[in-house]
Design goal:
Rossmann fold; 10 helices; seven-stranded mixed β-sheet; alpha/beta; Quinone Oxidoreductase, Chain A, domain 1
Length: 322
Amino acid sequence: MMNALLLDKKDTAPRLRSVKAPIAQQGQVVVKIKAASLNHRDIWIVKGLYPGIELPVIMGSDGAGLLDGKEVIIQPGNGWGEDERCQGNTYQILGLPRNGTFAEFVLVESSQIFPKPPHLSMEEAAALPLSGLTAYRVLFTRCKAQAGEKLLVTGAGGGVALFCIQFALRAGVEVYVTSGSDKKISRVKEMGVSGAANYKSENWPSILKKQAGGFDIVIDGAGGADFSSLVKLCNPGGRIGVYGGSIGAVPNFSPQPVFWKQLSILGSTMGSDNDFTEMLDFVNKHRIVPIVDSVFELEEGDKAFERLEKGHQFGKIALKIA
């Protein structure tokens, strides 16, 4: 038996339960989890807003731990397929439909196991997989970010956005951000971003236009009414990487600036094993340390979910698993 955070009812945070420990079959391994981290995906699942929900399920996509005495990190996606351009129909993410990492042990395919970056603690390593992979693919695989270009990242403070900032700065990209929190803007300026605007200000596009002139790349995970302003802020030939839509549909969208400025709008989600390998190489080369907002014990899962839902975090929320 083992302890795990089990979701068995919609709109209720997963609760600590004693469940059967997994047993590996051919091609599989069981990892002893030492740390895990939360994603907004977990909030959508709890609220019943994610497709294909089957309950009960042990939640959690991110994890780091031990396998045969070695420190490992888990690639949360499995079954990407042969086409590097997009995931196949068999692609799945840990934590739904398969049991995930909010437990003492997790069953995964052996192909999902990678060496943990040695310069990271277990909690820092657990903060990396899903958000780091998403950021790396949208920034480099899809948008082809290059040194010297100007990048705008929206929603600074969230996991993917912060990784985009960290990765881009190490790659020599000039980074600007938006955020709804002046406190978070101050934090990212300490990281080395060149400018910022609070999107709660009515003239935030003008503020950014004055600071940067325009952007070669925009990375957005929100959508909504502000998306049209992002299009207007792009330089000719610019690229917009879209990895999420937390606000929703884009109203009154006009295609004119897209075709006239020769813009590319590039959708991106998660990443392949090749993306994951390249992301880990990049993290190891530049000794990047994920920003961990807070660490909770597994037994405090409800408090961790509450902090994530309130949106006060700066960085990833981790779970420490004894």
